[in-house]
Amino acid sequence: MAVSAFAAFWFLPFVLPICFYVAFTDLREMRITNQAVILLAAVFVIVGLFLLPLPTYGLRLLQMGAVLVIGIILNAAGVVGAGDAKFAAAAAPYIAIGDLRLLLAIFAANLLAAFATHRLVKYTPLRRVAPDWKSWSTGWKFPMGLSLGGTLAIYLLLGAQFGA
């Protein structure tokens, strides 16, 4: 992996709770809060300054801006939700550009697993654990925060273990 194991390890304690919160609120309310997105971006801006070389830090901030622009365009086209686009932008600087193919594979596997699990639980007695979650009754809409947060968490966990 191209990501630094050192950086991934030190990002984890800050990022994992945010990823869990994003997955939970998207399941419960079908929304990713601005506070979670801002916190995720702020963690990178502050902690990343200490963990990454300055040129890498600057490039990663550019990644955040580029993903935000792409997300705004996709949101305007109705392809993704606004919260999903903002979360992807806030998560982008944590990803080493050399790991993009790996990240897409993690995301694809995570999306399939999350979608199948969500739909399966929706029609089982397990649904009674959280009967009021909005994601159960939104038709074909899916809480992408479950997959987006999970993908970032898995990527950083793998990076801490197998990173450069």
Automatic annotation (TrEMBL):
Q: Which residues cross the membrane?
A: 6-24, 36-55, 61-82, 102-120, 140-158
Q: Name one GO molecular function term.
A: aspartic-type endopeptidase activity
Q: Which GO terms describe its cellular component?
A: membrane
Span of domain Prepilin type IV endopeptidase peptidase = 15-115
Keyword Ribosomal protein recorded: no
What is the top-level taxon of the source organism?
Bacteria
What residue stretch is flagged as signal peptide?
Answer: none
User: One Pfam family of this protein, by short name?
Assistant: Peptidase_A24
Q: Does ATP-binding show up as a keyword for this record?
A: no
Q: Mind listing the UniProt keywords for this protein, alphabetically?
A: Membrane, Transmembrane, Transmembrane helix
Q: Which InterPro entries match?
A: Prepilin_IV_endopep_pep
Recorded protein name is: Prepilin peptidase
Q: Which organism is it from?
A: Sedimentitalea arenosa
Lineage, please?
A: Bacteria, Pseudomonadati, Pseudomonadota, Alphaproteobacteria, Rhodobacterales
